[in-house]
Design goal:
Two copies of one chain form a homodimer. In chain A, helix 1 packs across helix 2. Chain A is mainly alpha-helical. The termini of chain A are far apart. The longest helix of chain A is centred in the middle third of the chain and has 22 residues. The radius of gyration of chain A is 19 Å and the shape is elongated. Chain A folds into two domains: 56 residues, Arc Repressor Mutant, subunit A (Orthogonal Bundle), CATH 1.10.10; 130 residues. Chains A and B meet through helix 8, helix 9 and helix 10 of A and helix 8, helix 9 and helix 10 of B. The structure holds a DNA duplex (30 and 30 nucleotides). Chains A, B: This is TetR family transcriptional regulator. Chains A, B: Keywords: DNA-binding.
DNA sequence: ACAGAATCCGGACCCTGGGTCCGCTTCAAC
DNA sequence: GTTGAAGCGGACCCAGGGTCCGGATTCTGT
């Protein structure tokens, strides 16, 4: 994993160039899978060798882009104001988190798509998924009731899968706001279910 | 789209052979993506040309296998006894349907995985997804309350995505029965939420 | 049973796209 | 200025999906 920083200015410049070029390409092109690594290299005015040295492989490049874009939201979640930040009551925070994920993926559709469906190794092994999941799980745990937070967190996050979002937006022409409303509604329903009625989880 | 039946017996024999070989390969091999088309052809004792003529492309082969395996469940859903069949009350039928999907994907993990993550064109364009979705949606519609069935159906089905199932089973070592219990629990929670508490869906 | 036509067979072949290699250039430390 | 470590880039490699076509097989009409 060639992840360590170089101090050489050409290396740094090229890294930036690649990031910018890739970013542009992924947002412009229709489908993420017709952005080839050669395309990116060419658009950045760089050789393929350089590109692969900087990011390891395709997934590495995607990851780097994704993480960069994700940073602001990460901040907001970790230390921002309610309802996203840690001070928010769990019942509000869960829908807020899901809404944040949804909006992020709407704003970065192509990228999220490329990263999630990107073939080898499921999205569930990605660290950023791991982060969302464990956070959501922790928040769910603060809500009383016999809900099993682990599964619930997975199931809720599944509703924000990039290709589902894409399908709803592109095929079903569902507008952004109603998607948000539906997701919020869904999350709320999951949370506000009557605990007395819930099955006890066996095992 | 070379989908029409041939009357020639060699064609039919070869089609069967390919189906059988592919089935065997996909269940044996670790990851679906290291079953190549050439492998399948070889295992079936057939040339690649034959294989591609019979199924069009990789996705076509997968689809054919999948549909074949799905047939019994389809029967049970369309005309079987409750709680899967049409006679079941919606509140019971929804979890039953999801459970059926879950079990099916557990029993055909590799195949479902290959089909869903199979790169080009999202799983949401597949006819079998369309079928599950519209059925689930119809059943949800029979339940009173301001739930928007379309989105809810998508969200519930998302919890049965092949790669999530795979992750839970393989990485988190979650046993089959507790997965089923959790999913049932989740579905029930979605259904039994207090309608008075639900947000009205705007738009 | 036989000819002719239609269909199918199969593996050599093509092509795309991710990833590697290595001789040459550029940087920065002395 | 010298030097060697790091970086550069594009030619190259390879796997795997998909195509092609000469030859074999099967169907149909008589």
């Amino acid at each position: 994993m060639p992840e360590r920083q170089s101090s050489r200015k050409d290396a740094i410049r090229n890294r930036e160039a690649v990031l910018a070029a890739a970013d542009a390409l992924f947002t412009r092109r229709e489908s993420p899978e017709d952005v080839t690594m050669a395309d990116v290299a060419a658009a950045a005015g760089v050789g393929k060798g350089t590109l692969f040295r900087a990011f390891g492989d395709r997934a590495g490049l995607l990851r780097a882009l994704y993480e960069a874009r994700l940073e602001p939201i990460r901040q907001a979640v970790e230390s921002g104001p309610p309802p996203l930040g840690p001070a928010a009551p769990p019942h509000d925070r869960v829908p807020a988190l899901l809404d944040a994920v949804l909006c992020f993926k709407l704003d970065n559709r192509r990228l999220a798509l490329a990263l999630e469906e990107g073939g080898s190794s499921s999205p569930y092994r990605a660290e950023h998924y791991e982060r969302w999941h464990s956070l959501l799980r922790a928040v769910l745990e603060q809500i009383p009731g016999p809900t099993d937070s682990d599964f619930t967190a997975h199931a809720l996050l599944a509703a924000t899968r990039a290709d589902l979002i894409e399908h709803l937006a592109e095929e079903e022409r569902m507008p952004r706001e109603s998607m948000r409303a539906h997701l919020a509604n869904f999350a709320t329903r999951v949370l506000t279910s009557d605990p007395l009625q819930g099955l006890t989880t066996e095992e």
